[in-house]
Amino acid sequence: MDCWRETEGKLVHDPLYIKAAAAAAAAAAVASVLSEKMTAMTKKHCISFPGPIIVGAGPSGLAVAACLKEKGIPSLIIERFNCIASLWQLKTYDRLHLHLPKQFCELPLMPFPSSFPTYPTKQQFLQYLQDYADHFCITPVFNEAVETAEFDTGLGLWRVRTTSAEYRCPWLIVATGENADAVMPHINGMGQFKGQILHTSAYKSGDAFSGKKVLVVGCGNSGMEVSLDLYNYNARPSVVVRDAVHVLPREILGSSTFGLSMWLLKWLPMRMVDQLLLLASRFMLGDTSRLGLERPQLGPLELKAKSGKTPVLDVGTLARIRSGDIKVCPGIKRLTRHGADFMDGSSEEFDAIILATGYKSNVPSWLKEKDFFSDKDGLPRKPFPNGWKGEKGLYTVGFTKKGILGASMDARRIADDIDKCWKSQGQEQ
Ligand SMILES: Cc1cc2nc3c(=O)[nH]c(=O)nc-3n(C[C@H](O)[C@H](O)[C@H](O)COP(=O)(O)OP(=O)(O)OC[C@H]3O[C@@H](n4cnc5c(N)ncnc54)[C@H](O)[C@@H]3O)c2cc1C
């Protein structure tokens, strides 16, 4: 850590010099780790890093790295895949746009280009993330999955073991996301079904399903949008709706429903905002229960706050359900060789099944610190806004159930917190 200390005499009192020196030192630290990594891979020795190690190069990991960089604190991101934002690059379908307007999805310190539409496409979002990484000179270590991370009390450091090296650092930031692994449900008879079964993380477009009867299991935002995509490619989709679900229009009176809700919440209690949202939805979308989409007892915002369940923002699927082009099916009793038996006693044949059954965190599989994260769901035990900071230099970013907006809030808090410690250790130069 001595290399971080002041050695340059009078110059260090010049603020411009301090910023430049900090940036150069941060870059040097990362470069030295990369070269040490090469040696470590052959000699298997461990690598010490003076700043925080961030696990995961998704939007959350990038956000916290940028906030740290702005304060002159070097950080190192370790990413299991060979790219940033692997969820968006490798596991999302082609027609995906941001579900929320861009102003609610930007990372700290750098807005979206004004030329981008309100709901950027997946490609535009990825371009923004790449520009963000370039702007802040963020160069993750790719192709290294973190296998274990634990605090070594003797050393007073975190030991982070990856597929090819061991790193030691004073701070560990978990940024592996709420969507690290696909949830693959067990459905009776799954082994018997002769057609293709795939998770939405492997679905790209309806192109491959043209003319086929496809059963989409799950009616969240992904399930609803994939059903519409299949319809647009001349497939014959059916969507399984097992539980009650809130479907809301994406926009109300020309404003995004999300933005309007945030604004109303400043003035009105949540239950009242929910009533207004439901009234507007009824007016714009009609009675969804007549289409087989019962609404939950709790309003959309209250349900999200209590259970994390996100309402579906309709992008046109409801109209296709109403016209009968997309069929709504009840829960599946069992899969058969050529289709499915449903809970209401009906049966139908299908060529393929797409599981829009969501994702889960993978933190319990590698983080040995058990107090902070729940083993049950892999999320911090303390709910938002208190879930970002653990003990002994452990932090988490992006586990708020509030999307990129929540991740950005975490990233700023973490950088401020580490900054205090960094400065008190006299390492800011
Ligand atoms: C289809 C879809 C659409 C969404 N749309 C929006 C939206 O419009 N607006 C919004 O705010 N939110 C949206 N979200 C929710 C959320 O904001 C995004 O999922 C976002 O990508 C979360 O960023 P993250 O960095 O926390 O997690 P991720 O993007 O999942 O990134 C985590 C990274 O960690 C890596 N990783 C995991 N485990 C390890 C390990 N052991 N070692 C090393 N690396 C590891 C992963 O490979 C990944 O690159 C959407 C989610 C999905 C699935």
Automatic annotation (TrEMBL):
Coiled-coil ranges per UniProt: none
Cofactor: FAD
Entry's EC annotation: 1.14.13.168
Keywords: FAD, Flavoprotein, Membrane, Monooxygenase, NADP, Oxidoreductase, Transmembrane, Transmembrane helix
Transmembrane region(s): 16-34
GO biological process, one term: auxin biosynthetic process
Catalytically driven reaction(s): indole-3-pyruvate + NADPH + O2 + H(+) = (indol-3-yl)acetate + CO2 + NADP(+) + H2O
Top-rank taxon: Eukaryota
Matching Gene3D superfamilies: FAD/NAD(P)-binding domain
Similarity annotation: Belongs to the FMO family.
Protein name per UniProt: indole-3-pyruvate monooxygenase
Biological source species: Dioscorea cayennensis subsp. rotundata
